[in-house]
Every structure is written in C-alpha cells, then in structure tokens.
Amino acid sequence: MKSKRPFEVEGKLINLSNLDKLLWKDPPITKADLINYFITAAPAALPYWQNRPLTLTRYPNGIEQEGFYQKNCPEYAPTWVKTYKTVADRTSVEYIVCNDLATLVWLANQAVIEVHPATYLANDPEHPSFAIIDLDPTAPLGFEAARDVALKIKVILDQLGLRGYPKTSGATGVHIYIPLKPQYTFDQTSLFVEIIGKLLIKFYPNLVTNERLVRNRRGVYIDHLQNQPGKTIVGVYSPRPLPGAPVSTPVEWDELARIDPSDFTVLTLPQRLKTKGDLFAPVLRDQQTIDHVFDLLSAELR
Description:
This protein is an alpha+beta fold. It has helices at 31-49, 101-109, 143-160, 186-203, 269-276, 291-301, and strands spanning 5-9, 12-16, 22-24, 29-30, 53-58, 68-70, 82-88, 91-97, 112-117, 120-121, 124-128, 130-137, 165-168, 174-179, 208-209, 220-222.
C-alpha cells in the first residue's frame, strides 16, 4: 500500500492515510501491515466481534507512544458504521459495532490495535454468551504458570462435563471460554468462575490466587469479575500493543505444553489460520448449561 490512497471495500470508500506509519518497530510493522492483517483475519475474527459493543485501543503514533481507549464512536465516523447506545448512571456511551469488513478496515485506519468485544450480544445485553476464565500470572511467573493452571482447569471442566476453549491472551496469560446458552446472568457466570477459582485455591494455594490487590498477589490470578457487565477482555484474533505484535490466538489443549505466545503474531497468524483454521469456531455454537455446577462445586468448597 502507498502512504495514502482511497480504498473501496464492500462498496464503501475509505480514505486510508499514513499507511507507512510504523506501529511496531521490532519487527517493523506499519499501519498498512495492520490493515492487511485485519483483512486477512476478518473471516475468522468478525464472527466473534459482530453485534457486540466494542471497546477499542488506538495507537496512532505506534505502540511506543501512549495509546488511548475509545468507547464512544467519534462524530467523524462514516454514517454506515453501526453503533450501540448504553445509558448507565446518567452517562451514555455509543459503542461501535463492527459487523462488516468495511468497518474493520476503517477501524484499522484509525490505528485501532486492540479490540475488546462485550461478552454479550447487542440484542441480548442481559445474558453473556460465555463464561471466561482469565488466568493472569503474577511476575516473575509467566506463561508457563498460566498454562499449568489452565491444564488443571481442563481436568475440572472434563469432570463437570463441560467444554472449554483456550486462547493465549497475547501476553503471558491464558483465557478459557466456556460457551453457554443465553440464559445466565452476569452474576451467575461470575459466580461460576469464582467457584472454580476457589476450588483451585483449595488444592493449589501456592499456585492460584484470587487476591485483588496486585501488591499482595502471588501465583496465577483468576479474575472472576471479568465476567461482570461492563468488563471486557481482549478479543480472539486481536493484536496486542506489545513488542513483536502478538495476537490473542486460539490453541488446542494439547498445544499448550509446547507453544509460546510469541509464536502468534500479526505476521505469522495468517499462515496459522490457513493451517489450523478457526479453532474457536465451537465457541459460537457449543451452547452449554451450568445448572448442575453450582450445587456440586459449592458443596465441595464447604
């Protein structure tokens, strides 16, 4: 791509600009590269971002400069960009909803690097689509510790007859998605993850924690409050504003023992999609119930 040019996608004209702007220095990745990544990843990524309010992180001057979060759709957005309005505590937010490739290209042209979709669909804001187990290792622990806890969670999920789908966070963490029927509240999905966390703490107190204060935290933190409304987590296939341009990537359970998050980047992910396909596809259709879990695990923790 040249530094600036009009670009037509899905019948919509987008004036791409500053295409040679360097967003990552090592390896050198420009805004044009980011746009190309989003175009390539769109068939896999869009199904997880569509119809969900988005919290976005923009880095117009590259990741080595300070970025900023954007929730409200800017006034200069094209009229064809869809939005979703929420009102809470007398404050309204008009979120962008990315339902098509044209919107995604426009966002990339705004130097959007991170995409944080809501856990709910815009047409059903009371019911999350999944419970998310967010595993965040406390320094000096890294990905290996998060991976080890993830594999322990896999054993618990198997015993409960539930299927979880892991992805790298793009940093040192692991996210496990448990897709659900749209009948549970945010409090229920949060409680579900909290119970699993407490069960792990009971058996692995030196490895797992639910301590909120970072200064007091040791081990791998399980943040069940990420399942509350208004909270978001970096979306599957979203790049991260970190050295190397890592991407939050679905992985197979048996891959966890041998992969490193740095393996999956804006430059390498397209080939992985060709080889592996979309490993997260079951998250869109594997609707499960957790009615049986609360009594069973609550009794275990008494």
